[in-house]
Amino acid sequence: MARTESNMLPLGTKAPDFKLIDTVDDTKKSLDELKGTTATLVMFICNHCPFVMHVNDQLSKLAKDYVSKGIKCIAISSNDIDNYPQDRPELMKKNAIDNDYIFPYLYDQTQEVAKAYDAACTPDFFLFDKDLKLVYTGQLDDSRPGNFKPVTGKDIRQAMNALIENETVNPDQKPSVGCGIKWK
Questions:
Q1: Which fold has domain 4-180?
Q2: What's the confidence (pLDDT) of residue 130?
Q3: What is the spatial distance between Cα 23 and Cα 93, in angstroms, rounded to a whole number?
Q4: Please, what is the angle between helix 50-66 and helix 154-164, to 10°?
Q5: Which residues make Cβ contacts (< 8 Å) with residue 173, sequence separation at least 6?
Q6: How many angstroms separate the CA atoms of 175 and 51, rounded?
């Protein structure tokens, strides 16, 4: 399990647009139709990464806790499925159902969306405000597989709560750590 840190896209960056297949319902969805009224959390994840499996329950809980507050979550997998067949779209759908994702789980076949976001690892998180300007990029929390710290989502929750309260998101942000995106 190689440890890769996120690239920390500059705060204030406008969310790159996309239109990708939602593996759960096989329809194309765009950022514009999926964004939240308060904020939008774009998460680069995959099925097989131990770092993502470690936080799957929290990702599901996070989405459920904040959807009523106008924050929408979007998950994207950009991994090369030829060399990592466990990340194929039909298995993404199964993973979304098994983990009770209430958010779309999109497949980035060309990897262009991951490149546009400068995503580097799974999980990699990008929180945008209502105007789709980046306000948080970094870790979910300090928990990692094997470090015995509880998975709480503390860092992202603090950023989301700041947006809900119309406060400034703390610019002191730690990079996410996970498996490197599997590039073609």
A1: Glutaredoxin (3.40.30)
A2: 97
A3: 5
A4: 20
A5: 8, 136, 137, 138, 139, 155
A6: 14
Closest CA to 56 of 65, 47, 67, 68: 47
Distance CA 120, CA 37 (A): 27
The residue count for the chain: 184
CB 113 within 8 A of CB 78: yes
Distance between CA 62 and CA 45 in Å, rounded?
A: 15
For the chain, the domains span 4-180
Residue with tokens 């329950």: 57
- Asked if pLDDT for residue 39 goes beyond 60, the answer is yes
C-beta of residue 59 within 8 angstroms of C-beta of residue 115 = no
CA distance 162 to 169: 6
Question: pLDDT for 86-122, tens place per residue?
Answer: 999 999 999 999 999 999 999 999 999 999 999 999 9
> Average pLDDT in the 39-62 region?
97
> Per the confidence metrics, is the pTM higher than 0.90?
yes
Burial class (CB in 10 A: 0-12, 13-18, 19+), 76: buried
Gyration radius from the chain CA atoms: 15
Residue with tokens 């896209």: 9
